[in-house]
Design brief:
Number of strands: 20
Strand content: 15-25%
Number of helices: 18
CATH architecture of the largest domain: Orthogonal Bundle
Helix content: 40-55%
Shape: elongated
CATH superfamily of the largest domain: GroEL-like equatorial domain
Bound molecules: adenosine-5'-diphosphate, magnesium ion
Structural class: alpha+beta
Largest sheet: 6 strands, mixed
Distance between the termini: 46 Å
Length: 534
């Protein structure tokens, strides 16, 4: 066999190396950043998106814009994926991450043009990030009260949707987060995915509500079963109460008359045994992951037990948390300690769909019911809730706050410039470039509010320096420079820390690419990349 011939692959691609590759990558990053630049901050503009099916979406969310843009450029895609990581880790701070990353690259390019090697820049950026993380600790302060948590969620929603919705969603997010906090070996955990989100089309976004319980779009397995129970005990079955054929595809030979009947009778007996086991345990309610046979359903109904079938895994998990029940494979192997307790179980019909609402004995099952007149509206409410509960959960896990309104970035830049002076090598230039890069946040915040961005940045830097206060920032509600503590514009330290790391990581990895294979076929480049002069 002859060796693998890859020339045919290379024919299809154009190879760009070294500086040319970096230049293209920086341009792609800038083009990407420009598409979301105007959405940053409370005065950011909404974007109108049109997808392939002709659906219109209005959003102020940077990630949503990027996801809809279907960018093909490899570097741009890599940067989007790093901002999606930010989205998953912290949810908030995604636009900032991308803007900073692109700005770092632009500044790096200027240095490359002056003859500084990308490797030196990358190492300078790493040094700057390392110091910044220490500075962030110094600038941050403890979360003082629940009111401050509420203000932080409001800051995260600034500019997104109408104010009545922001207000409502912040309140619900703080409430939901408080309900799902757990403490394990002294460590506080708050996992926002424990809050289920269910859309109920209609009404206004501000009518969205939080149900203390798990809501599942299902009705009981038998029409005669009671949909409303006051309180009782629940068994969760990680399987079904079904005949075996559905599980095993067994073949058998009928050799004697009556054998088939005997087989069926045996199966009915097995089903009955399982139902008897449920009755013996004293469960009032059961939920199965799989199906329940007709016969078993009737038996359960006759025994006064309400049953739900085909409940998905995620919902089973939520039910388990809300009731303290431990799921079992079959009722035959269940014991009293596997049962959980509930306060109430009821059916409610929304938009003609019957919903099962189970309020557990533990507060940990929460469901947000989003309201809105259209699918798009419902999605926007859901995204806002995700931002807000992300912030609240982060603050439970790490109750430290940083000032918003560009204050943190200006404070970091001031410190980084002093730090740069101590570095003898060329990395000094990269640390300065990093400091300049961070300032993109206050600049764009001001720009989007229609202010003179450079003048505001200089004013803010001077104000922080003369008063020795890191907490002075831009209050875009009042259009002044003031103490962000007084203005109530604060953000979780955890989110800013992650944003800084994400931005540096993606800038550094772009700097390290010096060879770019570009598929010749249909290279889709973000708008504006080709317009830039060679
Ligand atoms: P991201 O996706 O990065 O979170 P946002 O559009 O949510 O982007 O904007 C967040 C920025 O807006 C943060 O820097 C935050 O400090 C700032 N911000 C929020 N509210 C205000 C305000 N009232 N005044 C000034 N800046 C604000
Ligand atoms: Mg935000």
């Amino acid at each position: 066999m002859t060796g693998f011939d890859d020339s045919s692959i290379l024919e299809e691609t154009e190879r760009t190396t070294g500086r040319a590759a970096l230049r293209k990558n920086v341009q792609a990053a800038m083009a990407l950043a420009n598409t979301i630049r105007t959405t940053l901050g409370p005065k950011g503009l909404d974007k109108l998106l049109l997808d392939e099916e002709g659906r219109i979406q209005v959003t102020n969310d940077g990630v949503t814009v990027l996801e809809a843009a279907r960018v093909e450029h490899p570097t741009a895609r890599m940067m989007i994926s790093s901002s999606s990581i930010q989205d998953k880790v912290a949810r908030d701070g995604t636009t900032s991450t991308l803007l900073i990353a692109a700005e770092l690259l632009q500044n790096a390019w200027d240095l490359v043009a002056q003859g500084v090697h990308p490797t030196v820049i990358a190492s300078g950026f790493r040094m700057a990030e390392f110091e910044s993380q220490i500075f962030l600790e110094e600038i941050s302060r403890d979360l003082g009260s629940e009111e401050e948590m509420l203000q932080a969620t409001r800051t995260a929603l600034a500019g997104k949707g109408e104010s009545s919705m922001q207000e409502k969603i912040s309140l619900l997010a703080v409430k939901a987060a408080a309900a799902i906090v757990t403490e394990e070996v002294g460590k506080i955990r708050a996992d926002p995915t424990l809050v289920k989100v269910l859309a109920n089309k209609g009404g206004r976004a501000s009518d969205s509500s939080l149900v203390n319980g798990v809501v599942i779009a299902k009705k009981p397995a038998h029409p005669e079963m009671s949909g409303s129970l006051d309180s009782g005990r629940i068994l969760l079955i990680d399987g079904g109460i079904e005949r075996r054929q559905t599980v095993m595809d067994a073949k058998f030979k009928v050799t004697q008359p009556g054998m088939l009947e005997a087989f069926r009778a045996k199966e009915s007996e097995l089903l009955k045994e399982q139902v008897d086991a449920v009755v013996a345990l004293g469960a009032d309610l059961i939920a199965c992951k799989d199906g329940i046979d007709d016969e078993a359903r009737s038996l359960l109904e006759a025994a006064g037990i309400t049953a739900y079938r085909r409940v998905n895994r995620k919902d089973m998990e939520l039910l388990s948390r809300a009731t303290g029940s431990i799921s079992v494979h079959s009722p035959n192997v269940a014991s009293q300690s596997d049962l959980g307790e509930f306060h109430s179980s009821r059916q409610e019909s929304w938009a003609d769909v019957s919903h099962w609402i189970l309020e557990g004995s533990q507060d940990s099952g929460q469901t947000l019911i989003t309201r809105g007149s259209s699918e798009e509206m419902l999605e926007e409410v859901e995204r806002c809730f995700a931002d807000a509960i992300g912030v609240a959960c982060q603050l439970h896990e790490e109750p430290r706050l940083l000032p918003g309104g560009g204050a943190t970035q200006v404070a970091l830049a001031r410190r980084l410039r002093r730090y740069a002076e101590t570095i003898p090598g060329r990395e000094q230039l990269a640390v300065e470039a990093f400091a300049d890069g961070l300032e993109v946040i206050p600049r764009v915040l001001a720009e989007n509010a229609g202010l003179d961005s450079l003048a505001r940045l200089l004013e803010l830097t001077a104000a922080q320096t003369s008063s020795q206060s890191d907490w002075l920032g831009l209050d875009l509600g009042e259009n002044t420079i003031r103490d962000m503590d007084e203005a109530g514009i604060r953000e979780p330290l955890r989110i800013t820390r992650q944003a800084l790391k994400g931005a540096t990581d993606s800038a550094v990895s772009v700097l390290r690419i010096d060879d770019l294979l570009w598929a010749k076929q249909d290279p889709q480049i973000p708008d504006g990349v080709l317009d830039q002069p060679e």
